[in-house]
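Recap from last week: sequence in, structure out.
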Amino acid sequence: MSMTEELTDWSWEQKCQKAVEALGTNGFTAVFCRTPDDARNYILEGAADAASIGFGGSMTITDLAVQQTLADQGKEILNHSSSALSRDQKMEIMRRQLTCDLFLSGSNALTISGELINIDATGNRVAAMFFGPRRVIVVVGRNKLVDGTPQEAIQRVKQWATPPNAKRLSFNTPCAKTGFCSNCNSPDRLCRVTTIIDRKPRFTDLRVLVVNADLGL
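Predicted structure tokens:
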């Protein structure tokens, strides 16, 4: 690793650690992970007593490549992302994710002051993040950190996450064509449900892993 890379990692680690500390102050169980492998191992250990595991459609979780390992362990995998599923089948899986043993998700943004910011088109992912599943693990890469207010974090999501996600999901929105948010009124608009989780929900075992690596969009 070059000196530049070492200093960059050090700088990011300080920001990650500050976010972890703030999350703890806000009541979350928060863990700093130096590498994606650390996050992956935490998830696999946390899934030991889980029979059913929901996946919220997160590219961050996809990057960690845990689904096949969990499936090989005999876990029931609740993932609505397969293109082979009908709309009704997807909806049934989304509903079952709300009562699964373990729900895995990323977050669109995390403020340094410990607030999770997310924007959904349907709302199933954010709904499962704060109520329903027996345990929730949210993984946040350093690229999602925002040293600012929740409103600035929302802008981060709309500028850097929503356009590529709209393209990935083949949504017919202006941002999927231009790469820029236009606050559209498209029937395919992704920005429909915006949530700020600023304290740990009362009855949800919500754990946040902050990783010193770029993960997801």
